[in-house]
Amino acid sequence: MADNLFNAEVDASRVLAAFKTLGQRALPAVESASYQTALAVKETARKLIRSRPPAISRGTANSIGIEKRQIGGYAVLMADVVREKETARRRSLGMKNARSKLQQDLHVGIWLEWGTRHSRRFPFLFPAAGTQEGAHLNRLANSLQNLLNGMEG
Question: I need a surface site. Which of 9, 25, 30, 67 has the fewest CB within 10 A?
């Protein structure tokens, strides 16, 4: 039995055009919310890594960085803790192979997060991201709602 109490006609081309316009205008709002979340994840990860044993957390908390992605997002990851001057010094000493301290420092974040066969894991990035999941969804919703409110007026 059909319900004749409510009948709506929609111009599909206008609806699709509105979504397209919103998509172009939404990118700055999404980027802003994503950056705020990346900052929060970075700070939470720094706190988590500082709570680890001093031998593990020494210098590691300062090497957490944020990298911008191509389409409105950011990645929180371990930055290269070996600087150019130190890299040159180590190469001059012949420390070029895969077992050198240079290679170990480049991968310290992965080894802390997942552990190795010689050390247990000390996860900090994934737990930090997990704590910010709900807050990120709220930031996105608020940003898009503010955008829609601005389009109405």
Answer: 9
